[in-house]
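TEACHING EXERCISE
Course module: macromolecular assemblies
Task: Read the component lines below, then compare them to the predicted structure of the full complex.
Student: A.B.
Group: 4
Components provided:
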Amino acid sequence: MKSKPDPSDADASAPFLVLSGVKKSYTGVRALNGFSMQVARGEVIGLVGENGAGKSTLMKILGGVIAPDGGTITIDGKAHDALTVGESMAAGIAFVHQELNLFDNLDVAGNVYIGREPLRNGWMRFVDRSRLHSEVAPLLERLGANFTPDTPVSSLSLAQQQMVEVAKALSVDARLVILDEPTSSLPLAETDRLLEVIAGLKAAGIAVIFISHRLHEIERAADRVVALRDGELAGTLERDEISHDRMVKLMIGRDIKAWNSGDPQAAPGDVVLSAKSVQTEAYPLRPVSLDLRKGEILGLAGLVGAGRTELARVLFGIDPMLGGTVSIAGEPIRLRDASDAVSRGIFLVPEDRKGAGILLGLPIHQNISLPDLKSHAKRFFVSQRSETEAAETQRKNLGIRTPTVSTLTSTLSGGNQQKVVLAKWLAMKPRVIIMDEPTRGIDVGAKAEIYRLMRKLADSGVAVLMISSDMEEVIGVSDRIAVMHEGAISGFLDHHEFSEENILLLAVGKTANLAGAA
Amino acid sequence: MTKKDIGLLVLILVVGAIVAILNPRFLLPNNIANTSNLVGMFGLSAIGQAFVIITSGIELSVGSMIGLVGVLFVDFIATEGVPWPLAVVLMLALGAVVGLAHGLLVTKLRLQPFIVTLCGLLFYRGIARFYTQDATAGFGFGQEFPGLDWLTTGKLYGVPASFIALVIVAVVMWFVLNRSVFGRHLYAVGKNEEAARFSGIKTHRVIITAYIICQVLTAISAIYFAMYTRSISPSSQGNFYELYAIAAAVLGGCSLFGGEGSLIGVILGVVLLQELQNLVNLLGIPSSLNYAVMGGVILIGVILDQQLGRFRERRRTAELARRGAETAKA
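Instructor-supplied answer key:
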């Protein structure tokens, strides 16, 4: 079971992994479109690409979780059409995921050998704890870990926990370790430790695929960069070519398609909502300030996990505000819960449509009237006629496609469900509408309708804050863009400064290249 | 009435007819009055239970509260000389405070309803036993409270007062559940608390109110039970009554996951349970088998209901598939 490359092996110079022409589509969406790459033994590959470029599909194919529609995967000279989870593990491919899969009630050794514990002889088959610990100790030593096999995982830092995951990979004689966004939740000092671990793996002849949005880490760690864009290989950079700017160029660099909500009819008006030094629970040390003006669509861009949804939840009163002030038309307001926001005309269309946006088990008209039942009630009783009439108005207004408004919301398509979420707020008097990923999982036609609705709303004097991870959407729909990076706003872009490059630069914490975009 | 309610009603009538044929005493006015008295008393607490179950909670302390309120109420009016209207108000207030406490623990401290009310079940029983030093609370010889007696154990045209109370409470609560803003918020919170919160509903307030309603109704039923039994043993009064209430609510279509349940169904559930009790007595089944009969019938009922639901669902899908195939051909 020795897996270290043997110099006498004739195949040692051949690449460990070759992907050629790998294809995968989900219903109507091409996630990977003939992607090819190679990984040599002991090579550290930096894999970069925007959200939705196809990285996670690629990882699932390598892990054997999904089968590609076409192409071949060659490992150690053996070609496969698809891998099973078992084949992937047997070939020595190990994953360290962004979300750690550790049992924090066990110690380090127990986690490394979970499900494969060495057992004592005898009918009781007790776990042989001393052997367990003596086998894990050298692995930790190899990684330069500063903790012992009997340390409880719950007492380890995030980087140390990641080391446990790497140790797990080593314990199965991994030959390719895939690190999926390992540093996204790490403080900078701990990131350095992880980069050392990567160097250690490389020295032991183990290949590494390192996926990260933090491009400067890739600059430091990678031997070669592979960039994915729209499911295709956008290009590779050799060690001496790797630079931040070149990676960004490869990741974007396509034409912006005609995603457009139409131009605003008038210049934006006064500030409606003003957030000053707002601190969220996710990033208490990074206060956020922004102004939303009447009649504008402000796009809020950034990488997943940059703190955009958390900001939206605070502005809507769902999560507590740890500090700062929120004012409506210059008047500071208290946000104890969502009803405080709703009563001031601040509405949220949440990211999780089915979980938080609508009640799937209720008919359309009851969803629409839910936040405003009091105004449908005469004295004590809710008037069903008033509810139905209000829902009918919204159905015509938004073009919700349904036989009647008493249809169960669960039977509607995603786009129509999203319209119901919008309808419940439009039936009241919106001043600010925050839309978190408003078109996620919605087909193209409905998307365009939602964009038009957003513009109509803005033209009627509503301030719209649109959170979106879709570059084309942010650029095509927004009047102004704010970009968040690790909890703080790293910059605002006016219309003439819009470019994918500028957004991406701000999203990774650099400054925008304003001269170039003007 | 929903399909489920009608099914339940049919079941009640069929069982009733069989019992009546086997033992005609079932239909005697006295027997019916007795049974409806029990339906009234158990029904009051079952309605309260339904409110909590609709929020996807559960209230296990009902039986112990029936014991505690019974002991306190009888002691207040029989021994301490508290005027009975004041005692009634105090008992309802006690129920409200207990409900508020449970609601706050469930919402603000995010404790599980099962745990909170299980602790309540133990706690209130202990307090009840401690308060009377385990002695039975009762009335002195010849002690009478005409107004109270008429309101609790009296009859109007042969209908027991407790049953009339149930009908009044049920009508009010039907409107609360089905027509009021609060009722709509209650179902919304039970179906999906997160989405309700994102619609600006004060979900905590809704849940707390449900626990208060439950305990106030329980206090009312406790007074009826106290005046019915007239001597209250603190260690056994109301034992298991929470389970009757939960069983009735589930029979009546409440889902323990919340968001579902009709008031009519819950009351029919109570009627069915009391009919079964009565059946055990009238058909000469050993009364020790009482619980076994009830448990068996509830289980069969729930299984039937679920299987019927699946059958209907399958038939619907098959119908859709057939229509789909036709359009594909066309």
